């Protein structure tokens, strides 16, 4: 794997399996693993007929923590299937419609900040801007609370823990970690989110009130499945709420920040997006709802291309549940081996995406999408273990872009870094050091 520097002081790990071949062995410490970058084989592992049988699980999570051990991403085999099948309906298009009012009301402070930046002709760090926006949405959707300073401080600790915590999780046996009550995610913020979720559930039960949010949908799933196999325990509801927050907050804010950055650097794409938004906006009497969002084909392509160009997840993993022969390779993956899928490399491979560093939303329009090789576009993974919250994230980001582009445009400034600078890997996600763009007001529609 190669590491390419974007500057002398700051660098981004760009995993380029093409420097070797699409299929090669690696080591996690002394444990052998396999990197699979061949699209046909990726499809076989992630979505093939044996995917659910053989590659159901991800890397084992070394914890018996009452919250982390019940994360959907941590569960395995039958417990995973039960919780996954129970929580999946909460992310259906129909259920997500009920959360649109929360998303819309959360946009107010964001739009006010953009207006101030435009009036003062100041560049703005959109990573921080959208972090506040997604923080507000998920706090209200998952925990039924408005995030105060303490909430924000506890949330930030979930994402800024040092690399050594992850390193210890990889190399230290679980019995030792458990003896010292060690978890990758810091204990105090985990307990904080557990407490506020418990309080929210207790209040709703006590006062017999319902709020159209993610937590309520999970509670309904619990009640509706109480006599069947799809019953969720209160501990599992707590776990999915914390997981929803921990994986949804930073990924969504980064997606929006990258989209703003790409639009600022590509004004012709931004203008085309604006014209589509404007037409849909006027056709719906100036209202933004689920119906109008479904018509924004080019805007959706902008988000898709942003995810290709700046997907925060470098690599995805699956774990073999039994020995598995990779057809046509002569390779047998032994039971327990971790198989890595090099997402960043695939998204930037010139044989799959001509001019891979160029921002071209047209790649994802209906008339061109057939040219994308299956297995090479994996922003949310694929198959049974794909990201359950992808619809929520896309809806949240599309709604934000519509609200913004109706009134503002993003522009390049002297503070806009080209190329972007990133923190070293070792963090949960590839993170930009700051994404600064300018903002200008548009004439009212």
Short description:
39% of the residues are buried.
CATH fold topology? Cytochrome p450
Distance between the termini: 50 Å
SSE-based structural type: alpha+beta
Per CATH, the superfamily is Cytochrome P450
- How many helical elements? 17
Task: Describe the secondary structure blueprint for this structure.
Blueprint: E1 4-5, E2 11-12, E3 23-28, E4 31-36, H1 39-46, H2 51-54, H3 77-87, H4 93-97, H5 100-120, E5 124-125, H6 126-142, H7 149-157, H8 163-171, H9 174-179, H10 187-207, H11 214-224, H12 234-265, H13 267-283, H14 290-294, H15 297-309, E6 316-319, E7 324-326, E8 331-333, E9 338-341, H16 343-347, H17 390-405, E10 408-411, E11 436-441
Parallel strand pairs: 4-9
Antiparallel strand pairs: 1-2, 3-4, 5-11, 6-9, 7-8, 10-11
